[in-house]
Amino acid sequence: MGLLQGVFVLVVMVVFDLRSAWGSLRHSQSPSSMKPQSGPASRGPALSSQAFLSPLQKASQFQSLDSRGFAQEPLGFQEKQLLQGPVKPLDWRFPIVPEVRRELAVDFQLRQPVTPSSVAVQCGENRVLVEVKKDLFSNGQLIQPSGLSMGGCPVFGEDSASRVLIFEYELQDCNSVLMMTEDELVYTFALTYTPEAFAGTPITRADRAVVGIQCHYQRFYNVSSDALRPTWVPYASTEFGVEVLMFSLKLMMDDWSYQRPSNLYFLGDVINIEASVKVYNHVPLRVFVDSCVATQVPDVNAHPRYSFIENHGCFVDAKATASSSRFMPRTQEDQIRFQLESFMFQGGYSPSIYITCIVKATLASAPSDALRKSCSFSNGWFAADGNHQACGCCDSTCGPDGGNAVPFGGVQWEGNASLGPVMVQERPKTLVGFQ
Prior knowledge:
Layout: H1 2-29, H2 40-50, H3 55-67, H4 77-84, E1 119-123, E2 127-133, E3 148-150, E4 157-159, E5 164-170, E6 177-180, E7 184-193, E8 209-218, E9 246-251, E10 264-266, E11 270-278, E12 285-295, E13 305-310, E14 314-315, H5 317-321, E15 326-327, E16 335-341, E17 352-363, E18 375-377, E19 381-383, E20 412-425
């Protein structure tokens, strides 16, 4: 009997402990039990009840807690403030605009290049002597003789000691251009320097240069004779002038009334040119323009070059470019006027144009012919003086002998006349708006 009571008491205790453990497990799995408790008494039973759980039950308990998201529960605002610590007060101000430092005015003047005095000219009776320093630009850089020429003539000699290049030629050589004024004969040469690239490189440090050289000679000179000296004549010497016909080219106004004071034109403008011959105590003469060439430098053989009158008086520019260039009707025998539509050389380095023409003069009584004519093109060739038959050869070759046949009357004069520089610029561009 006593043994049975002892067993019964033991069974009751085991059942009580199992119920306590099951209640503790349910309490731990509820969301309210997951919150931290503030009193120590509440933690005591929980710890004692968990002591009866097996390791397998503890592992399943932790898995259940993870699956319910206990570790990922978001923190409240107070918890975040506690984690972040004390917050400093916001200190913000408007940004200070930096003061712009004013630039001080500097007294600056662009230094203009100084024209070097490196070319010397000596004009003789029938020859010209030109000396050129190898330091052509006065910058310490010596030029190569192969890059220097005078109207196509190469360097004649060199003074190595003084570093001077020498040209010495006849006045009629080196493509010289003869111009005549009322008092002088002027021979003009073009001294051209074309820089060469440094060996093994494509660069150069020198500019292309063109120097104009002129020799002036008086057209009139005195010849005296003292063979006869009559006592009743206070001055017995005889004087006379030796004259050469003077051919000239002039830029004229639009109405041909006066010589044009400006040499500036724009593309598309018409250039009025008058070719004339001065006659002093001479029989009446008629002037013709035999040929004309335009270049960018005074050298008539320079490139690029454009021949706009050729074949002994054929104005080919109008036929080649459909321009309005033409000879004007003749008003005086000793002058011929023509109009040239302005142009520029493609890719040219300068807006300057130099015009050189061969001008002929014959007796005014001599009729025009294939070698002495003034022909223009407009849907066909026609002559300025009405003799249109003389223009029939403009599409072929006029004259079998190159134009040297003696005209009617057996008298002909010929010379070169030059004009330039003529400055041609592009017209200012304007924008037109449409509404």
